[in-house]
Amino acid sequence: MTERIYNFSAGPAVLPLEVLQQAQSEMTSLNGIGMSVMEVSHRSKHFEPILAGAASGIRELLNVPENYKILFLQGGASLQFSMIPLNFLKTGETADYVITGAWGKKAIKEAKRCGNANTIFSTADSGFKSVPTQDELNFTENAKYVHYTSNETIEGVEFKYDLDGKGLPVICDASSNILSKPIDVEKHALIYAGAQKNIGPSGVTLVIIRDDLIAQVPENQHSMFDYRLLAENDSMLNTPNTWGIYIINLVCQHIKGHGGLGAMEKKNEEKAKILYDAIDASDGFYRGHAERPARSLMNVTFRLPSEELEKQFATEATAQNLDGLKGHRSVGGVRASIYNAFPKEGVETLVEFMKEFAQKNS
Ligand SMILES: Cc1ncc(COP(=O)(O)O)c(C=O)c1O
Q1: What is the DSSP secondary-structure string of 305-337?
Q2: pLDDT digits (tens, 9 = 90+) for 181-200
Q3: Annotated catalytic, 256?
Q4: What pTM was estimated for this model as a whole?
Q5: Is 127 left (phi over 0), alpha (psi -120 to 50) or beta?
Q6: 268 phi, psi to nearest 5 deg
Q7: CB 191 within 8 A of CB 212
Q8: Annotated catalytic, 212?
Q9: Does residue 173 sit in helix, strand or coil?
Q10: Pocket residues: Cβ below 6 A from ligand 1
Q11: Whole-angstrom Cα distance, residue 362 to residue 360?
């Protein structure tokens, strides 16, 4: 098959076709140099503008102030679960965690190895269907930071506001909704995101970190965990993921060319509305997982009347080139991930399929 299909995968996920085509056209010879981006030194004059372009692309799109560094690291968002407490939480100290889904649970598990990682709010008992309001959050006095997950990819619940730490440094795992809408970076001390949903391929992690947090990195930190060293070396303490950074640069240019994050947000709201409206209009055949105010614009999660029907749904959808709809193995159901690069026509095609499927099977 040479034609593209509708790819609802949660990550690695669909990338803009124009980006893939540009990468394809430059695959064997980047800018006529006779080598691909994967074959040149990360310290060469060929790679320098790519790294600078990716960093300035992120800075421009997210309006990142000058007192923040932009890093492209490895180890996935999962390594940040550890790197954050390894740098900012010592034995005897407390950090606050807001747990709204599976990824937040993984983050706090690592933090507990370092100090008192305190769950100040969790929606676990109600099945991770909602997020707290700002007023529901009571922070621990003198906590080192508060951590939250702006979009829980597995359950499909999303914060609709940037959390205010009321003086505490705010750390956000934004892996699955970064670049999907404008955010207020200045409310955060550190934002991190695995690239493989909205920014690029897997294997590179974006970290946006404020200078005053970098200043708190302990002396004698292991080099590859040391945000200060990583920042001083411009993400090149070791060989970075040059291919990943190259694609990030192209994705940033693509988003800028399509109106920036305001335009992304508008398009994402339109796409998600089409899908949630179809769920709500199905007379209960489809049941959305998330409570309405917390519905994710990126990962639309829903159930069918039985697990058999859910299986059948995913199989029949795949046969019609609607791929990647099976819910995460830990929760089941159906999940349609509709990141920036996912086209509106794909959502409309899915909704048509859903209507027919419900008609045949109710
Ligand atoms: C919200 C969130 N955090 C963290 C991760 C883990 O990312 P990685 O696989 O890059 O370690 C994911 C999944 O990819 C995620 O969706």
Answers
A1: SSHHHHHHHHHHHHHTTEE--BPPTTT-SEEEE
A2: 999 999 999 999 999 999 99
A3: no
A4: 0.98
A5: left
A6: -65, -35
A7: no
A8: no
A9: strand
A10: 11, 76-78, 103, 149, 153, 173, 175-176, 194
A11: 6
